[in-house]
Write a structure and sequence with these properties.
Blueprint (H helix, E strand, L loop, with lengths): L4 H14 L1 H11 L17 H4 L8 H7 L11 H19 L10 H8 L1
Helix pairs in contact: 1-2
């Protein structure tokens, strides 16, 4: 069977590179194997994270130091928290399947009770 030009090239290359005696041995080993001549290289990733790096997230210690979750005293008014309390009571009523919701005392009645 006639040899193709690629087989002739491989034989001549091997005989020049490793010598005549070892080229036949190497050809026998390589005959039925697929060999990559160049190492496979990966295509560069074009992900959104590399194009736009994420900002550094603050640690808990940094958040505490910056006092991000502290509410100033002048913004802590009873009236501001009553809607949240009512929402919580409604949630608990639904969750526990209660029929009546305890009422939240108004700030005016609590101040008059103290006097």
């Amino acid at each position: 069977m006639p040899k193709s030009s690629s087989e002739q090239f491989v034989e001549s290359f091997l005989s020049q590179a490793v010598g005549e005696s070892k080229s036949q041995e190497a050809l026998g080993k390589l005959r039925f194997q697929t060999m990559l001549l160049d190492p496979p290289h990966k295509a560069p990733k074009l992900s959104s994270s590399s194009a736009h790096p994420r900002p550094h997230k603050l640690t808990t210690r940094e958040k505490r130091k910056l006092r991000l979750h502290d509410i100033p005293h002048e913004q802590q008014r009873y009236e501001d928290f009553t809607p949240l309390h009512q929402l919580w009571l409604g949630y608990m009523e639904d969750l526990l399947q209660l029929k009546t919701t305890p009422t939240c005392p108004s700030p005016s009645s609590s101040s008059s009770a103290k006097k």
